[in-house]
Amino acid sequence: MKKLLKSATLFLLPAIVFPVALSACATVEPEMDRISIDTPIAENCYPIASLVKVTVPAVVKRGFSVVSIENPPEYYTDPETGKTITIQNPPIETKTPFSRIVTPEKHYYTTPKGELVNNICELNKYNPVQ
Hints:
The chain is of the alpha+beta class. It is built from one helix and nine strands; from the N terminus they run αβββββββββ. Helix content is about 15%, strand content about 35%.
């Protein structure tokens, strides 16, 4: 019994002492001055229905790509004279059209007065703002 009481005391002692030791610590936060700014928040967004959409078309470079393959010469032997004649063939060329986008298409919105708009707001169709 004494052994059981001794082991129970050893087990419960840290469980009692540890919370008491932690409760002795307290942190004190210094008070900070609160800065308040009394400026109204202005909404600078425009509904998309009131704006004019301006599209700048893409810049596309067009041209032809010419590929030239060297054509080896042909040799012809004349049966009467026995001379070898070299026939130089022109190179084989293929001409393929290409188009490459240099600058992609851009969209931006302006007000009816012509001012550029960066902030566009949309009304939520399920909860419209009155």
